[in-house]
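Example for tutorial group B:
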C-alpha cells in the first residue's frame, strides 16, 4: 500500500457496506462513523476492516438490492451487476477448504466500496447533507444574533 492512505476501520465499516457491530454501539453511531469515513478519507484510501465478513455483507446487500429491484421497475441494472460481480468474486476467493489457500477479500478502496454500496448509503448521505446544511444555517443565525446583541459590547 505504498503511497496510499490506509484506514483500519475495525468494526466501524466492513467491506460490502455493512456498518458496525450492533451489539457494541449506540443507536446512530454506525451512521456517524460511516459519514466520518466518507468525509475524511480520499477515494483511493484502502479500507482494512477488523473482520473478513465481505462475502456475507455482499450477500445481504445483493439480496436487498434484488428485492428493491422487484419493487422498482426500470431501475438501472449497473449497480446490481457490480454488486453481483463483487459478491461472486468474494465467494471464489474464500472458497478453498484449506485456510492457507483462501485469498483475502480485503483491502478495498473507498472508491470501490462507495460504488458497490451507493444505493445502500444514498439515503444516509442525503440525510447527513440536509443535517449539515441545517447546522450551518443555525450557526449563521447564532452568529448574526451575537453580532446584533448590544450587551456583548
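The residue assignment follows.
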Amino acid at each position: 500500500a505504498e503511497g496510499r492512505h490506509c484506514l483500519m476501520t475495525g468494526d466501524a465499516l466492513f467491506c460490502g457496506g455493512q456498518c458496525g457491530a450492533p451489539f457494541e454501539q449506540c443507536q446512530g453511531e454506525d451512521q456517524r462513523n460511516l459519514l466520518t469515513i466518507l468525509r475524511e478519507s480520499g477515494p483511493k484510501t484502502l479500507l482494512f476492516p477488523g473482520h473478513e465478513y465481505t462475502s456475507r455483507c455482499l450477500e445481504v446487500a445483493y439480496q436487498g438490492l434484488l428485492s428493491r429491484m422487484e419493487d422498482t421497475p426500470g431501475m438501472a441494472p449497473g449497480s446490481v451487476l457490480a454488486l453481483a460481480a463483487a459478491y461472486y468474486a468474494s465467494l471464489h476467493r474464500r472458497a478453498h477448504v484449506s485456510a492457507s489457500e483462501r485469498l483475502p477479500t480485503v483491502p478495498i478502496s473507498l472508491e470501490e466500496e462507495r460504488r458497490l454500496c451507493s444505493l445502500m448509503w444514498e439515503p444516509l448521505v442525503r440525510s447527513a447533507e440536509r443535517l449539515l446544511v441545517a447546522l450551518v444555517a443555525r450557526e449563521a443565525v447564532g452568529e448574526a444574533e451575537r453580532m446584533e446583541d448590544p450587551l456583548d459590547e
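The CA atoms of residues 136 and 152 lie 22 Å apart. Compare this with the pattern of hydrophobic and polar residues in the output above.
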